[in-house]
Amino acid sequence: MIMATTNDFFLKVIETGLNDSDSNVRAAAMRACEGKDVPPELIEKGLNDSNWCVRAAAMNACAGRDVPLAFIEKGLHDSTWEVRVAAIESMREQKWCINTIY
């Protein structure tokens, strides 16, 4: 018998939420990723969403995480200012950003 871990269940719920047709559900799924160790692919999926609220939540989920610079760049070039602001805020908490600046 294979036992699923709590983290496996959490990731399954997030994946299900990100595939929902309701953008509010997708945004909530992305917000649940904040401060959690989730695969970068989940955050990337949020960054590619058609709804700006989901993209902003994905940018917030990048804060304090070791994410590819391309994720931050994508947010900085978003068409919606709220996503760009979230990208800037996320950048402030990136360790590589601090090392690059100083």
Description:
This protein is 67% helix and 0% strand. It is built from 7 helices and no strands.
Number of H/I helices: 7
| CATH homology group | Leucine-rich Repeat Variant
CATH class: Mainly Alpha
Q: What does the average pLDDT come to?
A: 89
CATH topology: Leucine-rich Repeat Variant
Whole-number radius of gyration? 14 Å
The amount of helix comes to: 55-70%
Query: In percent terms, what proportion of residues is strand?
Result: under 5%
Q: pLDDT below 50 for ≥5 consecutive residues: which ranges?
A: 98-102
Keywords:
67% helix, single chain, mainly alpha, disordered C terminus, 7 helices, globular, Leucine-rich Repeat Variant, 102 residues
Secondary-structure topology with pairs:
Blueprint (H helix, E strand, L loop, with lengths): L5 H13 L4 H9 L8 H8 L4 H11 L6 H8 L4 H12 L2 H7 L1
Helix pairs in contact: 1-2, 2-4, 3-4, 4-6, 5-6
Short description:
The protein has 102 residues and is mostly helical. It has helices at residues 6-18, 23-31, 40-47, 52-62, 69-76, 81-92, 95-101.
